[in-house]
Amino acid sequence: xxxxxxxxxxxxxTSVKWPVLRTLAPFVPVVALWWAVxxxxxxxxxxxxxxxxxxxxxxxxxxKGILPxxxxxxVGRLAIGAAVGIGLGVxxxxxxxxxxGAHRALWPVLLFFQAIxxxxxxxxxxxxxxxxxxxxxxxxxxxxLFPVILNTVLGVRSVRIELHRAAQSLGAPPWRILTEVVxxxxxxxxxxxxxxxxxxxxxxxxAAEMIVGTSGIGFLMFDARRAGSVTEIVLxxxxxxxxxxxxxxxxxAPIEQATGRRWGLVTQ
Amino acid sequence: xxxxxxxxxxxxxxxxxxxxxVTAIRDVSLEVPAGEFVSIVGPSGCGKSTIxxxxxxxxxxxxxxxxxxxxxxxxxxxxRGVVFQSxxxxxxxxxxxxxxxxxxxxxxxxxxxxxxAREYLALAGLSHAADRYPNELSGGMQQRxxxxxxxxxxxxxxxxxxxxxxxxxxxxxxxxxxxxxIWEERRPTVVFITHDVPEAVFLANRVVVLxxxxxxxxxDVPISRPRVWDRLVADDQFKDLSNQVLALVRSA
Lengths: 268, 252
Hints:
The complex is a heterodimer.
Chain A (H helix, E strand, L loop, with lengths): L3 H14 L1 H6 L2 H14 L10 H14 L1 H33 L1 H16 L6 H8 L3 H26 L2 H9 L4 H39 L4 H11 L2 H34 L5
Helix pairs in contact in A: 4-12, 5-6, 5-8, 5-10, 5-11, 6-8, 7-8, 8-10, 9-10, 10-11, 10-12, 11-12
Chain B lengths: L3 E12 L4 E13 L4 E5 L6 H9 L6 E6 L2 E2 L7 E4 L11 H5 L1 H5 L4 H14 L15 H14 L4 E5 L7 H18 L2 E6 L2 H7 L2 E6 L2 E7 L8 H4 L3 H16 L1
Parallel strand pairs in B: 3-8, 3-9, 6-7, 7-8
Antiparallel strand pairs in B: 1-2, 1-4, 4-5, 9-10
Helix pairs in contact in B: 4-5, 7-9
């Protein structure tokens, strides 16, 4: 048993030095299992490709420039969704959160439209806007927007009345209360809304690209189905997973934690 | 520092659920001269926090007048600093920025308001905590910040709503010692709400006993200053006054 301790210590030290190893390590058995099943051979390679097949495909598509281009298209659409979602969702959420009248009038409506999930809009959108960018942009913006609005409203309403009163009695006019109290108080919720919204939006976007797209990762996968290339479909799935992991774990989660945790507004 | 005067103050509100008018404050008149420390004590539900919220301008009053330095109060304002039971510090601001918030709202430049905040933090022995966030501090430390944040804005009247009710007993006595010292140094006009009779007597020049929305009695506290618990714990005059006020509160 003691012989394993130096090995364990080596693992701990290297994973502290290279945190990315801690992310990658759990995938080693997953890939190993996949590889073993592919090598064992109950399925033909065209039906169940092995890791090297997918890697070769990846290199080919990178060299041809197809993957970078489609990836850029999908990420660009996600970025537009995020930008519009924040630009529209946060102000709307602040308004509905602060105004009792707006909250009474709009909250049930917001919940109603939140419930009509993203791609449930596709049939009518295709009739209205056809197969193209407008339809996809609508779906992604719609999907990002509602979680951002709803969470912003919750965030605004979670700011304790004493904080409003403290700011007032220290001489803060209404717009300074908005910038100094309401927005920072709601920020952890806004970030949570954005994180959820982008997560849903990313999935909705891929679905929309499959159905109405002419480019993007979703289109790549659906087009590969037509050509019968399982390798390309698997590659698309892996790209989706890795990309979302990067966006969520390296960008969104750190921001969410940096705002909430230091202030004690979010518990571990 | 300015005086505070309440003239026939009343508060009734309509309870929509019960469908009837409720009287919280019947008829309260009170004069607090500039630089005086007045404690208001009374049992739960006697309306002491309602009075403070009206004076602070957080809720409207339905009758009578609230005058600060002779001028009628309209809504919340920086002339009346408030210390809350729940501390109400801004969690996303450092201690320094919390204390500098009032001056910031007045448009005082950054360097100057930091200097003001540091001066007041030093007053409460908090200089070392300037760059910390509120949730990194103990309850007692947080309320010290709450007190100096209100003081740093140099209000005409300081309103304190059971400020030490949610800290432990030892810390509470330390905070009372410190508040007493700070008051002796700066002589602000203070209205201090509490249900703790010894606390009310220890701190105040005068204790007002409230009952059912009315002033039941006013008791002067002529105990000499500086007041510290080490001395007052065994002081006969302090004990007699505390017992006198306690009897009034119990009869309320």
